[in-house]
Each structure stands twice: as C-alpha cells, then as structure tokens.
Amino acid sequence: MATLRRWNTGSKGSLFDRLQNDQPRLKGDAAFILSVKNNLRHIFNARPGECHGTKELGIIDVNDALLSTEEIQSSICQSIRHCIARYEPRISQTQVVVRQDPITFTYYFSVIAQIAQVYDVERIELDIHINNNKLEVI
C-alpha cells in the first residue's frame, strides 16, 4: 500500500536524499557535501547493466579488475569521470587519479573537482576507497 511522505522541498539534496528522509538534519554546506557524497556512493556501487532504465549507470567492478595494471586503472578513472559528469550535475571539471596508500599499499581513487554552491564555486577533493566490495566516498 502506498503512503504519502512529507517532502522537504527546500532541500538541495538528491532525489534519493529527499525520498529516504532518514539522515540527520544538517544545515548548509555540510548537508550539501553529504548529499553529493551519498549520491556518488550510490552511483559508484551500481554496475553497468544492472539498472534497466539506465544501462550505463555505474562503474566496472573494481574487485574483478587487477588494479596493478595501468590500463585497468585508466579505464576505472575514465568510468568514474563519466559517471560523475552524467549523474552528478553539481560537480564539474573533474579529475580522477589512482593513488596508493604508502602504509597499507592499497589503491584508492582521488577525485578533484569543482562543486557549485548557491553563491560560490568551491574546489573539493574526495577519496574513494574500496571497502568490503563496495566503494566508500570519503
């Protein structure tokens, strides 16, 4: 049975954020950045072909790929850039690079981009780590 839920129409969050409505009430820039991170987490943990309405949504499975080869690293970076450009309109001028943690020697992806705030454009840097077969946006 369908129910009606109250929407916060003043929110700048993604559609998923407004529908779920179960996150802590943050205000201003913190809520905006959290909304972007959550949207990216949803996008990055989808796999191409899984969404019937949008077949190209998602990135290739990084667990199946051997991250040590430059070709695989480059294709994952390109896939991340493509998904951000297509499915997160609040971010622009995106650069994605693969980095290796000097202590644990694990690979992660670093995203440097511009984010459009209401009155300002700000440069942000996000790290994407592989954690339990999922990508976490930090």
Question: Could you characterize what this model shows?
Answer:
- By secondary structure, the protein is an alpha+beta fold.
- It has one domain: Nuclear Transport Factor 2, Chain: A (Roll), CATH 3.10.450.
- The chain is built from three helices and four strands; from the N terminus they run H-H-H-E-E-E-E.
- The chain has helices at 15-20, 28-44, 70-87; strands at 91-100, 107-116, 121-131, 134-137.
- Strands 1-2-3-4 form a four-stranded antiparallel beta sheet, covered by helices on one side.
- The longest helix has 18 residues, at 70-87.
- It starts with 14 loop residues before the first helix and ends with a strand.
- Residues 1-9 have low confidence and may be disordered.
- Residues 35-101 form the IraD/Gp25-like domain.
The chain-level mean pLDDT equals 77
Number of domains: 1
Rounded radius of gyration (Å): 16 Å
Please state the second-level CATH architecture: Roll
Structural class: alpha+beta
Outline, from the CA principal axes?
globular
SSE series: HHHEEEE
